[in-house]
Design a protein that fits this description.
The structure is a single chain. With 359 residues, this protein is of the alpha/beta class. The chain folds into 2 domains: 1-206, E3 ubiquitin-protein ligase SopA (Pectate Lyase C-like, 3 Solenoid), CATH 2.160.20.80; 212-358, Rossmann fold (3-Layer(aba) Sandwich). 30% of the residues lie in helices and 10% in strands. It contains 8 helices and 9 strands. The strands form 3 sheets. The chain has a 5-stranded parallel sheet, with helices on both faces. Strand 7, helix 7 (285-297) and strand 8 form a beta-alpha-beta unit.
Length: 359
């Protein structure tokens, strides 16, 4: 139950209330369960106050100091909280449906299970906020900061997320992310179903430099796999230099160290970005092991194996021969011959296979 004296003080007006707060900083107001529906409480100081279960529907709390306040289970539907300071506030289970929280600070606030359906959070700072289990369906999140924000089990269906800063999000398998709108008003509506991917896709549409980087990656990256033994190092580096001269972007991976799970994932990721792969299997059993993941799992990425002429093809090559992306082995005597043959016998077959597999 609310403290009747505190409720009476608040109804005397914001100026009188704020003066009382300033003169009595040690008192944490008890306004639990009180009704202030449609009240004009702009710029009020309710920091640290207990407003749990209070009715603040359609109230005006813009520019208010609400940091550390307890609004758990409170009714803030249709309220104006624009530019309010809600740092560390407890809004768990609160009803903020249709509220205006533009430019407010929700940093480290607890909104677990809150109802923010159709709320306006344009430019709102939600860094570190707990929105787990919250209903944000149809909310307007343009320009909001969602850094280290907990969105596990939250419903983001139909949110407008143009310009959001989404980093370090905590998501779960039951976070609903359907029909997220990544364009602003006045633009053609584009929707995606993943908030982390959404940020990247929008940047790709609107950042020419980023598009150029992506085009470079998808059209020019060549992954070179091999061993950096003293004997092989010069050959592989010469191969890399020659690919550069031909306007490719070579990425060279050294198998000198034992493979680990992280290494395996790194190689697979690099292969996914590559136009094609050149695998020097000379003295490199580790390369063959890694190809077992690349060749079957990435059928659209051509693999051009090369081997020094004096060595025999390993027995496990039978595993690869019938794979459409795996090209015939090119043999070379020395570095000079490899570079001489590179255009016609290594790059050209790989490029033809790219056209065949990707159209």
């Amino acid at each position: 139950m609310a403290n009747d004296e505190h409720v009476s003080l608040l109804w005397q007006g914001v100026a009188a209330w704020n003066a009382w707060r300033q003169n009595n900083p040690e008192i944490n107001p008890d306004l639990a369960g009180a009704c202030f529906s449609e009240a004009n409480l702009s710029v009020i100081d309710l920091s640290g106050a207990d407003l749990s279960g209070a009715n603040l529907s359609k109230s005006w709390l813009d520019q208010a100091k609400l940091n550390g306040a307890n609004f758990s289970r409170a009714d803030l539907s249709g309220a104006n909280l624009s530019t309010a300071d809600l740092f560390g506030a407890n809004l768990s289970g609160a009803n903020l449906e249709g509220s205006n929280v533009c430019q407010a600070s929700l940093v480290w606030a607890n909104l677990g299970g809150a109802n923010l359906c159709n709320a306006i959070l344009v430019g709102t700072n939600c860094q570190g906020a707990n929105l787990s289990g919250a209903n944000l369906a149809g909310a307007w999140l343009e320009g909001a900061t969602l850094v280290d924000t907990d969105l596990r089990s939250a419903d983001l269906t139909g949110c407008r997320i143009y310009g959001v800063s989404a980093w370090g999000l905590k998501l779960s398998s039951d976070t609903k992310q359907k029909n997220l709108i990544i364009t602003t008003l006045g633009e053609a509506v584009i929707t995606v179903d993943n908030i982390e991917v959404a940020q990247f896709i929008y940047l790709m549409f609107h950042n020419q430099k980023l598009r150029e980087v992506i085009d470079t990656i998808t059209s020019k990256v060549v992954l070179i796999l091999g061993r950096f033994t003293d004997q092989r190092k010069a050959v592989l580096e010469a191969l890399r230099d020659e690919l550069r001269k031909r306007d490719y972007l070579p990425i060279l991976f050294d198998f000198e160290k034992p493979l680990s799970r992280d290494t395996d994932e790194t190689i697979t990721l690099l292969a996914r970005m590559a136009r094609f792969v050149i695998a020097d299997i000379s003295d490199a059993k580790s390369v063959l092991q890694e190809l077992r993941a690349i060749v079957p799992d990435l059928p659209s990425v051509p693999v051009q194996p090369i081997i020094v002429a004096i060595q025999e093809e390993p027995g496990m090559f039978d595993f690869y021969r019938n794979r459409p992306s795996f090209l015939a082995v090119h043999r070379y005597v020395d570095q000079e011959q490899l570079l001489s043959d590179l255009g016609d016998k290594v790059i050209r077959p790989a490029e033809l296979k790219v056209l065949e597999l990707r159209g």
